[in-house]
Automatic annotation (TrEMBL):
Cross-referenced InterPro entries: DUF2490
Residues annotated as signal peptide: 1-22
Keyword Signal carried by entry: yes
Keywords, comma-separated and alphabetical: Signal
One Pfam family named in its UniProt record: DUF2490
This protein's record includes keyword Signal: yes
Descriptive protein name: DUF2490 domain-containing protein
Originating species: Spirosoma utsteinense
């Protein structure tokens, strides 16, 4: 049986993750942080294939405390068909030291990205494959500037619990894993694993609460005759997300996956 390209890519990512896990010295943290995500979404429809989104996000080092990070981003999307969407988007990302917020940001990142989303509906289970290429410009507090690029792939699975499709008054599960790849190395930069429970109130409002583990990887090194293996540092976070969907006028109802643009 031949595998379709998304499955081939997924198998490669899973194999790479397994290899890294076997070679990695983990440095897990036991503390929890918080991610707050608020999204205004305009999905494409059969009346107009163009759509877009705007989003604001805040993160804290502790649970509802020690805020240190915020995002402001938005983008324009186009539905090639009902299961294929492309997007051009950008954002501003600010990171500070929560112990001295008055000193200003440690760094400001401006980001531009291009994205392809493929959706698959296998009866009750829904799959979203997201491919993204990012260009990132950093300005640090000391005046130093840096450019980086990154490739991301996310597989998101949705399962409605009280209906066959996700629509008004539907409770659903959402699970995803996303890999972050650095073209300049180290190739495997970050992994993000999420599991959450959501509820779509009506045609507009979607609420989600869940857990995300974000693990960053540092490359292996060899210096002064000593080999240092790949090192990782992970953190668990409580995620609270709210989406308001602006449905286009006269568009007929259609199932839309309640995925987070982040």
């Amino acid at each position: 049986m031949l595998l379709r390209p998304p499955y081939v890519f997924l198998l490669i990512c899973l194999f790479a993750t397994a290899r890294l896990s076997a070679q990695t010295t983990s440095q897990p943290t036991t503390t929890w942080g918080t991610w707050h995500i608020a999204t205004l979404l305009l999905p494409g429809s059969e009346t107009s294939r163009f759509g877009g989104f705007a989003e604001v996000q805040a993160r804290s080092n502790g649970v509802f405390s020690q805020y240190f990070y915020n995002e402001l981003k938005g983008g324009l999307s186009y539905d090639i068909d009902k299961n294929v969407t492309v997007m051009l988007a950008g954002g501003r990302y600010s990171t500070a030291d929560y112990r001295e917020l008055s000193a200003g940001a440690l760094n400001i990142e401006k980001r531009l990205w291009q994205q392809l989303v493929l959706n698959q509906y296998l009866n009750r289970i829904k799959f979203e494959h997201r491919y993204r290429i990012e260009q990132r410009w950093f300005t640090f507090r000391n005046g130093q500037e840096e450019f980086r690029s990154r490739i991301r792939y996310r597989l998101n699975v949705f399962v409605p619990l009280n209906a066959r499709t996700i629509g008004p008054k539907t409770t659903f599960l959402s699970v995803y894993d996303e890999v972050f790849l650095n073209p300049r190395g180290p190739a495997f930069e970050r992994n993000r694993l999420y599991a959450g429970l959501g509820y779509q109130l009506d045609a507009h409002w979607v609420l989600q609460a869940g857990w995300v583990n974000q693990t960053n990887y540092n490359p292996a090194s060899f210096a002064q005759g000593q080999f240092t293996p790949i090192a990782s540092a992970g953190k668990n976070n409580l995620v609270l997300s709210i989406i308001y969907r602006l449905n286009q006028h006269k568009a007929s109802p259609a199932e839309k996956l309640p995925s987070q643009p982040d």
